[in-house]
């Protein structure tokens, strides 16, 4: 296919876009009036790329992206798991020829546009690399929960508003691709950043510990709502319980009362959906964080509402 079409698409991907979508079909199915963007569809910042055309362009792009960095975006649009193309873009960021903020924006558009991108572990690793490159590393410090000060200092000082946007992106990726383990793992990394930065002192944008209180409180509520709507998503359950553990990693209690909340939430869900094993694992995790008296109270509240054998199977060893 004409290289002009390839570089046309690469140029469109460099524009400030609102969304990117891969359209079914090829040239014949998308025959709009003649325009400078043909055979692509660009309307009010929304870019549509016919699938058959993209796959034909991929062959040419895969042989040219090392010489023309802009073409690597076409490679990733067709194949987001292309490790060498991602490494090439990292080198361009390090050389200063590729803006890290624009790179984060482009990858976010890819993740929102199609689920194949959001399920790739190397895409989320690429975002973490960009964050580490773009933002100052946290000074070495000793925190409970991290074996060494070097591990705690491996997180970058990311402004809170950027972290909020990243959490929204992760949830979108998990919505279009259910039980997205790699996206939830990235979410775990974001929460680590928040806890370490909060225990260090004022955030990079002047955020106070109270700002982090409010943010994490909102995330706890959001995760509880997510679990209620996705009762088989154990990654979300694990993340919420991990947040309770992370809360103990420093002198500031960022989310007061979280253990009590998730224990009650887990009991309510087990009673409502006793057939879901994920919810029993959720309850076990919540009870493992609780005091013995709270465990007995929680188990007593379940009695008579679900089969006794189920209770014995999953939580009797905690009593």
UniProtKB/TrEMBL annotation:
Task: Give the matching InterPro entries.
Answer: Prenyl_trans_a
Q: Which GO terms describe its cellular component?
A: cytoplasm
| PANTHER family referenced in this protein's UniProt entry, alphabetically | PROTEIN FARNESYLTRANSFERASE ALPHA SUBUNIT/RAB GERANYLGERANYL TRANSFERASE ALPHA SUBUNIT, PROTEIN PRENYLTRANSFERASE ALPHA SUBUNIT REPEAT-CONTAINING PROTEIN 1
GO molecular function annotation: protein prenyltransferase activity
Superkingdom of the source species? Eukaryota
- Which family, according to UniProt? Belongs to the protein prenyltransferase subunit alpha family.
* Pfam family name, one: PPTA
* Name of the protein in its database record: Protein prenyltransferase alpha subunit repeat-containing protein 1
Question: Which positions, given as ranges, span the membrane?
Answer: none
UniProt keywords, alphabetically: Prenyltransferase, Repeat, Transferase
List the source organism: Agaricus bisporus var. burnettii (strain JB137-S8 / ATCC MYA-4627 / FGSC 10392) (White button mushroom)
